[in-house]
């Protein structure tokens, strides 16, 4: 399971260190794609395959299903770590998530998310205020 928040920089070539505690669970190859809220989603190969199977069941006759799968899969890139534990993020994905220098890498259960530091801070500040309200609406157990 992925959890925690880590801060790293992305260099001019698009390389970013993946936190050591995430490397083993991500495996030798993993998938990076466009995520929600202007971040990138990173999936271990096994999780990606499960997600792919679920998305294949969406009805292609539905406009929203076609749009979502196009968006999600067209941005996907199979990646691997270099010897220094860095991942090279494609320029199209860096542009989508506005990754320029300072990044935040967070663990979110079955995936990792990569955020621009400024976008993460803005998102976190907005969400923090309504965390209890959000939890009340979606969580059916005591935390």
Automatic annotation (TrEMBL):
It comes from the Bacteria. One of its GO terms (biological process) is cell division. Residues 5-47, 76-119 form the SpoVT-AbrB domain. NCBIfam families: division/cell wall cluster transcriptional repressor MraZ. This is Transcriptional regulator MraZ. Keywords: Cell cycle, Cell division, Cytoplasm, DNA-binding, Repeat, Transcription, Transcription regulation. The keyword Cell inner membrane does not apply. It comes from Salipaludibacillus keqinensis. GO terms for cellular component: cytoplasm; nucleoid. InterPro entries: MraZ (IPR003444), MraZ_C (IPR035644), MraZ_dom (IPR020603), MraZ_N (IPR035642), MraZ_sf (IPR038619), SpoVT-AbrB_dom (IPR007159), SpoVT-AbrB_sf (IPR037914).
């Amino acid at each position: 399971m992925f959890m925690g928040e880590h801060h790293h920089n992305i260099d001019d070539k698009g390389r970013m260190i993946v936190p050591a505690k995430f490397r083993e669970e991500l495996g030798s190859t993993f998938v990076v794609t466009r995520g929600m809220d202007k971040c990138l989603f990173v999936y271990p190969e096994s999780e990606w395959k499960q997600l792919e199977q679920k998305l294949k069941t969406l009805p292609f006759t539905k406009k929203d299903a076609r749009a979502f799968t196009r968006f999600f899969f067209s941005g996907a890139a199979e990646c691997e770590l270099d010897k220094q534990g860095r991942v090279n993020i494609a320029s199209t994905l860096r542009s989508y998530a506005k990754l320029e220098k300072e990044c935040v890498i967070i663990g979110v259960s079955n995936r990792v998310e990569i955020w621009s530091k400024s976008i993460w801070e803005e998102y976190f500040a907005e969400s923090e205020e309504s965390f209890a309200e959000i939890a009340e609406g979606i969580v059916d157990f005591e935390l």
